[in-house]
Design brief:
A hairpin with a 2-residue loop joins strand 2 and strand 3. This protein has a single domain, classed as Arc Repressor Mutant, subunit A. The protein has a three-stranded antiparallel sheet with strand order 1-3-2. It is 51% helix and 14% strand. It is built from four helices and three strands; from the N terminus they run βααββαα.
Length: 81
């Protein structure tokens, strides 16, 4: 009998989505990633993970803002031959 995982640690979440743990904490700080606190543990529910995978929840954090700013800067750069 296998046990179904109902919550993920921040480290497991980071590995699952291929981001660093600091990005996970940025998503939490921005409010786009809801968490459960159990004692000192910070947990993310399977429901939240499924919402992200289905595109029903978008993660926004400092990392996303940096990438957006970098893309905007790149698009504004004009090169001449």
């Amino acid at each position: 009998m296998s046990v179904e995982k109902l919550v993920y640690t921040t480290n497991e979440f980071a590995e699952l989505f291929g981001v660093c743990q600091m990005s996970v904490y940025n998503y939490i700080a921005s409010g786009s990633l809801p968490i459960l606190k159990v004692g000192k543990r910070t947990l993310i529910t399977k429901y939240t993970v499924n919402e992200i995978l289905q595109g029903k929840r978008v993660l926004i954090g400092r990392t996303a803002e940096v990438v957006a700013a970098r893309n905007q800067q790149r698009d504004a750069t004009v090169t001449f031959p």
